[in-house]
Amino acid sequence: MTANILDRLWDTKQAIANTLADMEAERAEVLGPLQAHLSTIEATYAPILSDLQNTAGRQEAEARALALNENKTIEGDHLKITLIAGRETVDAKKLRGYGAAHPEVLYFITTGNPTTRLVEK
């Protein structure tokens, strides 16, 4: 049964890939005469977009660092950096080895570093 499901999934993925390839071939045929002009437009905007994306990346990193340093969520007019507490993780091998009957298992619980999430308001 499992192999049958996987075979059908493979066939579907192949159909998706073939359909995308057919679509791209037709697009290339239609866009062929316009490709030089499109390339010029893309070349004009590429450095501008690259600079803007680099600036946005630096600003986002700065905002995330501020939220982490202040240990709180920060908000602007359009964006918010939400502080997300670090996860607690448990080493299951250590816990099984030590035994569930002992309250000292709390020693094996560790908390990860907090993270942030960027969302539009």
As a percent range, the share of strand residues is 15-25%
Number of helices: 3
Shape: flat
Helix content: 55-70%
The average pLDDT value, as a whole number, equals 88
Protein structure class: alpha+beta
**Rg for CA atoms:** 26 Å
What do these coordinates show?
Helix content is 60%, strand content 17%. A hairpin with a 3-residue loop joins strand 1 and strand 2. The protein starts with a helix and ends with a strand. The mean pLDDT is 88. The chain has 121 residues and is α+β, with helices and mostly antiparallel strands. A 3-stranded antiparallel beta sheet has the order 1-2-5, covered by helices on one side. Strands 3-4 form a two-stranded antiparallel ribbon. The chain has 2 domains: 70 residues, no CATH class; 50 residues, no CATH class. It contains 3 helices and 5 strands, in the order H-H-E-E-E-H-E-E. The relative contact order is 0.09.
